[in-house]
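Structure ticket #2291
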Amino acid sequence: MSQSIHSIPIDKLHTTPILKLDAVEKAAQLDFLRRERFVEGFNCNKQVLKLFNEYFGNTNVNQKYGLVVQFKKLKEKILNSKLIGLVLYAVNMDINHKDFLIDDYPNIHGQVIKLTCASISRTLLREYFTLTEIHILCREVNNFDIYYKEES
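Resolution: structure written out below.
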């Protein structure tokens, strides 16, 4: 059984294979998936990798400033560029693609945290956005009204 990003217990956030998106989140995600079909050269996987590498791809920067700072910068980018659908796409991205590793981040406790596309997106959505904020951003996506279908 899949669970949503805000209903799953925090200790299971990164071990649950599939997280469920609601109808509002699916519509925002679908806007990006459709771009692959209609925008020449657009690829969701490449766009997610590019976005997350920009903020988490440099171990030295991650260690110097910390992950919290990087997550806050990424949140600002998502807000300003209306990229919530791309982040929602990444929530389940690593399920069939184990190679979407952005960085191995050694923390101050000597543990190595694997920063993958799914782990970054799940942490960002859970820790830095409320469900209400996510839904507001989803409704601002360009083609939201075309793709949104109420759940019955």
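Closing remark: The chain has one domain: 21-145.
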